[in-house]
Amino acid sequence: MSPIDFSFVTRATRVTALLCVTAGTLLSQGTPPKADSTAKQMVEFAVSEMATLATGSAAPRYPSALKDAGTVGVVVAQMVVDTNGTAIETTLKIVRATDPAFVAAVKEAMPGLRFSAARVDNRRVKQLVQIQYRFLLQGKESPADTLTTNSPIRQFDVTITGITK
Asked: How many distinct structural domains can be found in the chain?
């Protein structure tokens, strides 16, 4: 197995975040709930601290078949980070991907993702995040950066470098 170099780069974004709240929370803030108020809703709030990707958090492994074939690529994954700093697997949405094998690698690493939770004042809150995983190989052109600089969603750029012999 070849060693993998993990580099974590965080993009600065506006200090707003999309948070998951229940209709009950909305009601307590004066917003009337819809008839089916059991469903969670996404609401934009200003946060005092945005979620951050923890040092040593899990990262996908470079799929060996793609590395051997010299294939580079990207996966943009979106998910909700809970108040304990873990990604909620059922919220995973693949926004963009260049190869299903890269998607499989991202899904396999997801249970090990760790964050510091977003905060509103001193209270931990859920936050929608987006992670761009760029799978790179030495001597190959880097996949295009697909993150939007004006996005209200907290974004991270993670590079997975496959070391070839």
From this structure: 1
Q: Which of 58, 22, 24, 59 is nearest to 41 (CA)?
A: 22
Give the span between the Cα atoms of 30 and 18, in whole angstroms: 19
pLDDT tens column, 60-101: 999 999 999 999 999 999 999 999 999 999 999 999 999 999
Total H helices, total E strands in the chain: 3, 11
Q: How far, in Å, CA of 35 to CA of 31, rounded?
A: 13
- Give the domain extent around 114: 4-162
What CATH number should be reported for the domain holding residue 158? 3.30.2420.10
* CA 82 – CA 51 distance, rounded (Å): 10
